[in-house]
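Input record (one chain):
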Amino acid sequence: MIRCLVVDDEPLALDILTDYIAKVPFLELVKATTSAFEALSLAQENAADLIFLDVQMPELTGIQFLKIINGKCNVILTTAYSQYALDGYELDVADYLLKPIAFDRFYKAVSKVQGQQNQAAPPAPAERPSSGSAPDFIFVKTEYRIQKIYIDDILYIEGLKDYVSIFTSTERIITLQHMKKLEEVLPFGRFARVHKSFIVAIDKIGSIERGRIQIGEKIIPIGDTYRDNFFKKIEDKNI
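The corresponding structure, as predicted from the sequence alone:
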């Protein structure tokens, strides 16, 4: 996760960036404030990895702010005036967003910061090999990246017209992968196709009643085509 700090003297600008941050799974909001001095204190305490910094503020300009923190964390400048871009890049900012900020441009900027952090991070410890022949994770291609998903984290998969959503306990991952392809790569004994639009993790099923499966708060229908094969798998686990 990238911890974010937003500082802007305009409350509307704070609201927009706060909303954008909430939409991105790898971002976490630490604080959104109109006070440059409050933000400066947080930055000096290493409370954030990334600061969205307005250039024109009454207490302290963004350029002055940059010079004080002197590279303590990544900074993305936000302003309505393009003439400040050169000053910002000379102080090695991660990016420069011109107001009004579109979400796609925002996402491009934070993805660049994420990529830089991943390159700078120490290598992760080697993972244990799976105890069986089945993999313990899969990779899926999303719009912006290839994402690793652990098999144990998957609750269910829902196929829609043009894409597939993989639901875990913490997030929803959208991919253009086909349901049939996912069904083939998932461990056969742990997942079941129960409907033309749904694959479920058997160990995540809370209850089955009247042709419906409940996983958490989600109710999933059992299609007639898949009913017999699904209940055969369930019977194998009955006691």
